[in-house]
């Protein structure tokens, strides 16, 4: 029993995060509700953008319906795309007008589910809409907290818990990507191959990708030619991705980390011609004005929460009685 108590205290020191403490205050709950509304409003806008797109419609020869749209095996790509895009548009607008209703939120999830299936059926597995898919699924479980002004602590706690789950699953996707890069690097290192931590890793990755998709990018050739410039940036990307889930429990870093991930996506577009606009938009919604970030958070706490670097700084610079402590 004593060991369990010690473990709980240790975890509390690492993740000092209590949903109930935020639910006890009205502002985080109100802010989370507003963010959820904008999630559905901007999804409707995105649906208009998607239905006016359709560059993939020329890829009929590559169309291979995935398991989630078996009915598309009997239709052409154009017909399938029209059906799914229309359903996505309708479901998105239903969500924008009736997001308070659980049935409407289910329709939104199904619309994104079908859109993601369509995109994955054309060329390869498409990851652009995965975060929106998972978040829309979790938002189905939001409690009825829209009508009226006063809500019980239990309702506010459940609402914020679902919202936090949406944040956590979004960051979890990045952590899995970072873990995959580290696992691959370890395997490649022992196999005597070029790995993700090697100076030339980014240059090789850019060259391989642009050749694979037969495309060019604004900065791709620069980083291929100047290997050493891209090395710290690639290491920084792995750092951002791998520790993303940790940041879910560190509200002081929510907006900073989201900015870093958006900067990463911008770099990917400029070097590899891959645009992750839906994902960047979701990061803005969920983290730029996170309900869990306290406005009185000091810069010391923010810096101290950084993975690895924060731990070192807390022990070196912020140690009580340290004459070199930054003030």
Describe this structure in words.
The chain has 327 residues and is mainly alpha-helical. It has three domains: 26-151, no CATH class; 176-295, no CATH class; 298-327, no CATH class. The protein is 66% helix and 0% strand. It is built from 15 helices and no strands. It has helices at 2-14, 19-23, 26-51, 77-98, 102-120, 130-139, 153-190, 201-213, 220-225, 227-242, 244-248, 254-272, 277-287, 299-304, 309-316. Helix 3 (26-51) packs antiparallel against helix 4 (77-98), helix 5 (102-120) packs antiparallel against helix 6 and helix 6 (130-139) packs antiparallel against helix 7. The longest helix has 38 residues, at 153-190. The chain is flat. It starts with a helix and ends in an 11-residue tail after the last helix. Mean pLDDT is 86; it is low at 323-327.
